[in-house]
Amino acid sequence: MTVSVEGEGTPGPGAAGESGLTVLLALGANILVAVAKTVAAVLTGAASMLAEAAHSWADTGNEVFLLIAQRRAARPPDRSHPLGYGREVYVWSLFAAIGLFAVGAGVSITHGVQELLSPEPAEDFIVAYVVLAIAFVLEGISFLQASRQVRAAADRLDRDVWTHVMRTSDPTVRAVFFEDAAALIGIVIAAAGIAAHELTGSAVPDAIGSILVGILLGVVAVVLIDRNRRFLVGELADERVWDAALAELALQPEVDRVTELRLTLVGAGQVFLSGAVDLVGNPDENTAAAQLAVLERRMARAPGIVLAIISLSAPGDPTLEPRTRS
After folding, report:
1. How far apart are CA 282 and CA 261, in angstroms?
2. Edge-to-edge strand list for the sheet holding 305-312
3. I need a surface site. Which of 81, 96, 121, 152 has the fewest CB within 10 A?
4. Within 10 Å of residue 290's Cβ, how many Cβ atoms?
């Protein structure tokens, strides 16, 4: 079988392991950064630093949710869940995105507004700069790992990186990619706010920096929430994956032509295949039922297909054609 949705997510152990490595690397980086930023926030009293500390603690909690998502979604199908548990990855990733919105964005914006209303002087700016520099390096390493995985998957599907980040069925990689990108931008914003505070003696730029970090996190969280919502509701697989499944189904020895095919994503790189075919030779009812059962089992052995349901075509149904052109 040549049908595979591996480029679309993480059905295979190798890809799943890479996603796990990406999340673990992000978790380790965020724990170190969160602790350092918290200490720096206490020592300096800078609003932007406190916002960055809240950002990193939110990201740390998110990585824990993402690890839970991967573990729970990896369970195989059983009698009570014939399509498997793949959609759990979207549930837990949704929790992570909501946490980022509530903790990261909420704390940052609230503290920034409070700082504007009741400004407090900051000190020990050098501590803030050192911590932000270290955080930038650690977040950069995590972002490079996420970018490498995204770029490799995008190349397999002949997509640009941004399109793949938005469309991939693997929410863990998308979350880490967005969170690390936001972290790098947030560090730059925080550094600018603290520098302006030091140069002017006014806490206003620092407070504005905190608010801007919060807004940035809010935008990222809304994007992630929306993508997970779409996959939970049910989204179709990539057209090229659909074409590959159509070509493979049409090549089966029992199949004369394919008249219906649906590939619904039920997890990261996991699809439910359903369709209708005309069988070669118009066999009798018992023979047709046996051939369809064999065909379903054969298609379900393809990487990423968790279940295949195939019926006979209705009279007069047109033959399906590929959706993309090479």
Report:
1. 20
2. 255-267, 270-279, 305-312
3. 121
4. 12
pLDDT digits (tens, 9 = 90+) for 20-59: 778 888 888 889 988 998 998 888 888 888 888 888 888 8
pLDDT in tens, 71-82: 888 888 888 888
Long-range contacts: 85-88, Cβ < 8 Å, 24+? 85/267, 86/266, 86/267, 86/268, 86/270, 86/306, 87/231, 87/232, 87/266, 87/267, 88/267
Rounded to two decimals, the pTM is 0.79
| Contact predicate 272/263, CB 8 Å | yes
Name the 3-class secondary structure at 305. strand
229 with 243, same domain?
no
DSSP conformation letters of 73-124: HTSPP-SS-TT-STTHHHHHHHHHHHHIIIIIIHHHHHHHHHHHHS------
CA distance from start to end of the chain: 21
Enumerate the β-bridge partners of residue 173: none
Handedness of CA 260, 84, 220, 114 (dihedral sign): positive
Note down the domain range covering 252. Answer: 239-312
